Amino acid sequence: MLSISKIAIKKSPLSLSSYFSNTKPRYKLRSHYFDFQATSPTDPRVLDKMLPYMITKQGNAHSKTHMHGWEAEGGVEEARAHVSDLIHADPKEIIFTSGATESNNIAIKGVMNFLNPMKKHVITSQIEHKCVLESCKLLESKGFDVTYLPVQRNGIVDLGELKKAIRPDTGLVSIMGVNNEIGVLQPLKEIGNICRSNKIKFHTDCAQMFGKLPLDVNDMKIDLMSISGHKIYGPKGVGALYVRRRPRVRLLALQSGGGQERGIRSGTLPSPIIVGLGEAARIAKNEMQRDNKRIKKLADKLISQVMEKIPLVQLNGDKEQRYHGCVNLSFAFAEGESLLMNLKDFALSSGSACTSASLEPSYVLRALGVPDEYAHSSLRIGLGRFTTEQEIDFFIETLVTSVERLREMSPLYDMYLEGVDFTKINWSHD
Amino acid sequence: MSLTLSTQNTFSFVQNTTTLLKNHFSKITTKQLAQLKKTTVEEASKFTNYNFREYFKERANDLFDEFISKNETNEELVKQFYDDRLSELEVIKRQVLIGKLYPEQKFVKEN
């Protein structure tokens, strides 16, 4: 029984939490969450499924001799089945990891270390996630060759360029499904066909796509796929790697240990969060159609109303071939960081979370060929399952007034309205 | 807000669910579906988190309206739907309680 004094009960909920924890809340009100590409809130149904595994069913899933281990193993195997079901794979082909970053590292380094020295070439794209690019950089330092494919203006990889880049010693092609900054969807089926016909392993980082858009590893001829738990309303700290068994994909493990997860990823399985990932995958399978319909409707409303109310707005990335929950807009003559500061009632990002600490424009936008003035003023607006229409309306209203206010203060905007040609100006003083 | 964890309330938590389960083995009527819909929306409205509250309310309304409008005659399917929604209702009740144990500030728009 909780013994709470009468005074504490009469006060607001805020003081009740401070009664227990003695820490004052840092902010008065919570900002509305529009950063679903960075992470997503854990669905209450997922938390509900996880809790028993943190309270009573706490056994090690590898303990084969008692019920505590069997219970945990049961939960893990059920989660494995849910994850594999979503991508039309076999449960034995799913390896649980600590997240998509680890999965990407295992896939790229593991496959190429195994294929060394027969295959020395990797093909990837310029708009991959940092973990893929850094893994490729490490391989380059170890003597491998890496081709970073350029992307077209709409963010989609040119299949002709991919075919031209293939060499006899190409071992792996790594192209992400949905980009985390601009939301474009790559033609995975076509890329899979090209790779299969050239007998090259095809890895795809589907952290932003898994559970949101339909995936079929057999139809798309995918050999390796990275999955992230916290992007699909699951817990943080868990992910998975799909490793094809027929035809077998062989790779060298990065982490040595007791040989768990087919020897590919040793270590005790974190059963509570794996169960969370499984439940998130099960919910995603049931709710995918409904969520996508809602998110598309909200995204279309957002884009159309913003473009109608303010001029000089650009949507980065292909308009149709995309995941609608990731909207990357650039506003001319309104600087990105100042815009973010004006929109403090909303949790947004002006680039991916991993690169938001630096002031450089995002490398993804630079790869698209977005001019610097647009790249500096881009906002990534993430919509998700829990976004409401009321939040979108409030956001549109605040965004329009903020952009108008920033443009009023901008001398460059005044020059633009007067019809000044910026290309003819000599900015430096001699 | 009053956070009561007395035994009386936990008993009524169980009692409400068993009342809904009473007619489980006979045919599920439209009236029972409507009753379950009403209970689910009421429970979902108790979420302290604005986003969860709105999402689960809208979802309950959509799912029930869609199913009821289909006028499903297959008893098995109706029972399956009823069972699924009932177990989801229990999840919602538990999570509402957990949300109240860890209160946070309100969102900007709902204030």
UniProtKB/TrEMBL annotation, chain A:
Keywords: Iron, Iron-sulfur, Metal-binding, Pyridoxal phosphate, Transferase. Pfam families: Aminotran_5 (PF00266). InterPro entries: Aminotrans_V_dom, Aminotrans_V_PyrdxlP_BS, Cys_deSase_IscS, Cysteine_dSase, PyrdxlP-dep_Trfase, PyrdxlP-dep_Trfase_major, PyrdxlP-dep_Trfase_small. Its EC number is 2.8.1.7. Belongs to the class-V pyridoxal-phosphate-dependent aminotransferase family. NifS/IscS subfamily. The keyword Transport does not apply. Its cofactor is pyridoxal 5'-phosphate. Residues 33-394 form the Aminotransferase class V domain. This is cysteine desulfurase.
UniProtKB/TrEMBL annotation, chain B:
Residues 43-90 form the Complex 1 LYR protein domain. CDD domains: Complex1_LYR_LYRM4. Pfam families: Complex1_LYR (PF05347). It comes from the Eukaryota. Transmembrane segments: none annotated. Belongs to the complex I LYR family. This is Complex 1 LYR protein domain-containing protein.
